[in-house]
## 1
Amino acid sequence: MAEADTKKMIDGNALVSMCLSRAGTDRMFGVVGIPVTSLANRAVALGVRFIAFHNEQSAGYATSAYGYLTGRPGVLLTVSGPGCVHGLAGLSNASANAWPMVLISGSSDQSLAGRGDFQELDQVAAVKPFAKFSAKATDITEIPKSVFSVVDWAVAGRPGGTYLDLPTDVLHQTVEESEAEILIAEALNSRDKSLIENPRIDNSKIDKAVELLRSAQRPLIVFGKGAAYAKSEIELTKLVESTGIPFLPTPMGKGLISDKHELAATAARSLAIGKCDVALIVGARLNWLLHFGQPPKWSKDVKFIIVDVCEEEIELRKPFLGILGDAKEVLGLIHKQIKDDPFCLGKTHPWIEAVRNKARDNVAKMEVQLSKVVVPFNFLTPMKIIRDAILGVGSPAPVVVSEGANTMDVGRSVLVQTEPRTRLDAGTWGTMGVGLGYCIAAAVASPDRLVVAVEGDSGFGFSAMEVETLVRYQLPVVVIVFNNGGVYGGDRRNPEEITGPYKDDPAPTSFVPGAAYHILIEAFGGKGYLAGTPDELRSALAESFSARKPAVINVTIDPYAGAESGRMQHMN
Ligand code: ADP
């Protein structure tokens, strides 16, 4: 047989899949079509699990959360033009939240550029505001280097979104398999190792941080989703417990140390941030979620110690002390240093007593509200029932996905997080519509955990069709929809706002009243429940939690129970 007949040729689609697999990608999300269907099939054949969605937006949100939950970049695959544009929702969300993600889009044939090819778009230009690094493989030989660089850049420094552009002609080009192996080996060898290394920590700053914490009268440790991403829970717990310093998690930091811990200042948030004199901020930005670190919420004299992997973040906030480094490593060093010359505030320290008493009072006040059974449901009555059902699951604790204005606000104060990375919500950008995507990511990333979404009907509606995806992959996800018939609920307009030729249209905030969201999932073979009373809700939760199968619980909420814009009415 002639030598040429024995040579195995592979195309660009196969080569991309091989490289992704070598880069450690084991899950992909996306919507297939021209020219990337074969890429998805090839990836699956190499052992990658490909989760096929209905919409790239939702698939993109899933990809972003997958990167956060696993610490490895999620990969989103889309078609060219509109597919890539839909994927930008996920890419921008990843960058805004500092989560690693790679968007891979097919693009039109290079020889036809500028002539109106099928789904043609300058995609590298389109992704620019949202991607910290982009690569375009203009020839099949460039594929290995491009794939490894987008994967490495996604996790480098502050994690974020990267983009890989794959023109149709490149996906169809072929090379011999043996040459492909050589290209892969060369690309692996020339990988920039500095991208995946953590910054070196300045030990003199560790000394200073320890001195500041030691001499503080009212210290506080605040941690966020950067600390969660760094998997720093063991070091954080050791630091908190050895020093007796109270802690405050940001919404997604919740669970790194259990909300039930006696040093949790969550229920005394205003007092803790308003009165602390030294605040160690770990993997959290002093942005709107933390009131920019400014008065009146914070004391004007507070000394911030910021631990962050991103130098620009430290420069931006100008803290008293900035420590550049990975949260887990920095916390480990601080704890080690304190262990050599320990200090502990103790239960009778006035600051600890003040925080504890305030937290106890606030929890007691909340429990009084929660103990009232209000039907038709307000937000608190069903939230308490859901809280108890989630806590009843024990360990491994469910991942809670939360979005919506009132539903998320109430959920943040009522739901209890006991384990790390078990809360996903609208995040830094307040992104609505993330719910179903986040549920799918969580179920894929943590197959041993139940996933429970507690979301408003508006948030659910953004991607409700993905309930079919839940059923198709038989994911253990229970979606609880707080159905108050609209964005914020019923029509709240002033009479003078109801005028003009379209005054009889439904209000911009209104949906069809009593929408049967539970029936939607039944169209695909999932389980739906309608719950308007505590007994109905308890029974639906008990059955769906033990079944661990896709379910939607449609909870009827009084349309006037919530407030417009939740707790952010001042921003309207
Ligand atoms: P939150 O919303 O919980 O307040 P943010 O997303 O605002 O959290 O902030 C997370 C911060 O964590 C970002 O500034 C990011 O640069 C930082 N970060 C990401 N990874 C790490 C890490 N491994 N160690 C320390 N900081 C990190």
## 2
Amino acid sequence: MTQTTFTPRAFSGIKPSGGLTLGNYLGAIKRWVAMQDDGMETVYCVVDMHAITVWQDPAELRDATREVAAGMLASGIDPARSILFNQARVAEHAELAWIFNCVARVGWMNRMTQFKDKAGKNAEKASLGLYAYPALMAADILLYHGTHVPVGEDQKQHVELTRDIAAKFNHDYKVDFFPLTEPVIEGPGMRVMNLRDGSKKMSKSGDSDMERINMLDDADTIAKKFRKARTDPEPLPEAPADLADRPEAKNLIDIYAALADTGAEAVLAEFGGEGWGRFKPALADLAVDKLAPISTEMRRLLDDPAEIDRTLAAGADRARAIAAPVLARTYDIVGLLRD
Ligand code: TRP
């Protein structure tokens, strides 16, 4: 079967399971802003229905959903050029996810490493939603016939599963309906790690606030967190290759490089041989410099939650205009009667 050509369209999402972090900004949003100018349609979603795969306090979920949206807007996601909305406003996501639950195989889900990591030894107590989450993610992407999915390395397996679901659907129903999506994996240096443990991703839901930079942290807090960030006793090396076994050092240098829009090479040309006592304050200053305009704008937006809600609702209308016909056609293909 030949593959239909689909219009290039990017889709990505951030879970509002807590406030927005520097990791979300450098690892995702900054790149999404750039993709707006790459000549393809861009659809960006606050994936609130993914957040509830682990329990969320309802008031905190509402706040986090608006905070993530405010962070995207303040960083330069333009609701006129991109479609920006929250997932729950477009019911088609849940509806297509159900169909994909019936396409995906239990054996496939059992191979998802993120579920194993998150559920840990307590898999029996994890929600069924957490287990099925990759089918909802596939629905998010395929409802828009998304062809490009900018995500971190940790989501690659889910995008591959999306391809498997699309391929099996097309095969089982003898159609050429869903595209086989490409993950657009972030380049090196874009994955921001935990400030206390360089082997873990910086996460908005980790236990200690000291392990992450929140987009709404003030200058003093940012300086304190970088000052206390874990490092090793060695000075900064002269070349990026010497960072291979130094995850915490590498992380701080990568953060600096990403904030300065340069590479680790250039950062080490400036700071190689120096101690952390000089580098950490420079990093904090740079971070405050880059983040202050964004956090100021975020606070301004968050002062008027009704306006954020109107923006998300308008984005949801545009999203639905794409998603509804795709879902309707899917129902027809599957043989589900509808009006
Ligand atoms: N699972 C993604 C994460 O945890 C978030 C997400 C949900 C997503 N749906 C998506 C990312 C669709 C890309 C495309 O980061």
